[in-house]
From TrEMBL:
<dbReference type="Pfam" id="PF01381">
    <property type="entry name" value="HTH_3"/>
</dbReference>
<protein>
    <submittedName>
        <fullName>Helix-turn-helix protein</fullName>
    </submittedName>
</protein>
<feature type="transmembrane region" description="Helical">
    <location>
        <begin position="83"/>
        <end position="102"/>
    </location>
</feature>
<feature type="transmembrane region" description="Helical">
    <location>
        <begin position="151"/>
        <end position="170"/>
    </location>
</feature>
<dbReference type="InterPro" id="IPR010982">
    <property type="entry name" value="Lambda_DNA-bd_dom_sf"/>
</dbReference>
<feature type="transmembrane region" description="Helical">
    <location>
        <begin position="122"/>
        <end position="144"/>
    </location>
</feature>
<feature type="domain" description="HTH cro/C1-type">
    <location>
        <begin position="10"/>
        <end position="64"/>
    </location>
</feature>
<keyword id="KW-1133">Transmembrane helix</keyword>
<dbReference type="InterPro" id="IPR001387">
    <property type="entry name" value="Cro/C1-type_HTH"/>
</dbReference>
<keyword id="KW-0472">Membrane</keyword>
<feature type="transmembrane region" description="Helical">
    <location>
        <begin position="185"/>
        <end position="205"/>
    </location>
</feature>
<keyword id="KW-0812">Transmembrane</keyword>
<feature type="transmembrane region" description="Helical">
    <location>
        <begin position="217"/>
        <end position="244"/>
    </location>
</feature>
<dbReference type="GO" id="GO:0003677">
    <property type="term" value="F:DNA binding"/>
</dbReference>
Length: 264
């Protein structure tokens, strides 16, 4: 089946339901632009996107799946590299969770007591392990955003990687070169981090049409609340402690996403 035919089927089903494109968007949490491009025949969506749209229209994908050639159906599948990225993200998330306790201890020790109980090599090693594991963890959400056509999740996860990366660079830089204006920069970073968490949380909320609804909702809410505490700045310590349940939820969510994709 050529893509324009799929677009026509979706358009006809939507019209039969008496729905506008905007109303369909509200039912399936897919962007208006994506719906427009699919109906216009400009893109060939993955099976997850098609399945979500058809489910919102009370129509089963299996009813039209046979109309597609095997080559097209293969294009719907998740690639091995994407599954590998998700597996690595889960493993990295576990590492990030445990290394985070050591990292926070060192950071709070430095900021509050100005005494460092770790050598430079240990401190830098902890920071590097945390940075690399964070990058892999959020890469899992970049991949998830790509698979599910969740552009906000993909973009916000990329922003989070670069934003949090700035924090690591700042930590290492101030280790070697303490700044008189360090507190000012920490306030700015806290606000930037908070914005990144909030955007990512909104993106995660949009996963509820693809994964068990309660999990993306809970994870998204915790991300947004964590972001809010960082934005307020004087509540950032609460945000630091919220990172514990947040990271656990992120790992579980990535695992559920991988399980869902494995069924396809």
């Amino acid at each position: 089946m050529k893509q324009p035919e799929l677009g026509k089927i979706i358009t006809n089903l939507r019209n039969e339901k008496g729905l506008t494109q905007e109303e369909l968007v509200d039912k399936c949490n897919i962007s208006v632009r994506t719906i427009q491009r699919i109906e216009a025949g400009e893109v060939t969506p993955r099976s997850f996107t098609i399945k979500t749209i058809l489910a919102a229209l009370d129509y089963n994908l299996e009813n039209i799946k046979a109309l597609f050639p095997d080559e097209e159906k293969r294009n719907w599948c998740v690639s091995k590299n994407q599954l590998l990225a998700l597996n690595l993200a889960i493993i990295a998330g576990i590492i990030y969770f445990f290394i985070g306790f050591i990292e926070v201890y060192f950071d709070l020790d430095i900021e509050d007591f100005k005494t460092v109980k770790a050598s430079t090599s240990i401190y830098i090693s902890v920071k590097m392990i945390s940075l690399v594991s964070m990058v892999f963890l959020y890469t899992g959400f970049v991949v998830s955003g790509t698979i599910f056509s969740n552009y906000l999740l993909r973009i916000s996860s990329i922003v989070a990687i670069f934003t949090f990366g700035m924090g690591y660079v700042f930590d290492v830089f101030t280790w070697y070169n303490p700044l008189d204006t360090e507190e000012y920069f920490l306030v700015v970073l806290s606000i930037i981090f908070g914005c990144a968490y909030v955007l990512n949380g909104i993106g995660v909320l949009r996963l509820k049409s693809h994964v068990e609804k309660n999990l993306p909702t809970l994870t998204g809410i915790v991300l947004i609340v964590t972001g809010a505490t960082f934005i307020v700045v004087f509540l950032f310590l609460i945000g630091v402690f919220l990172l514990i349940p947040l990271t656990i939820l992120q790992i579980i969510l990535l695992y559920k996403i991988k399980e869902e994709l494995a069924k396809q």
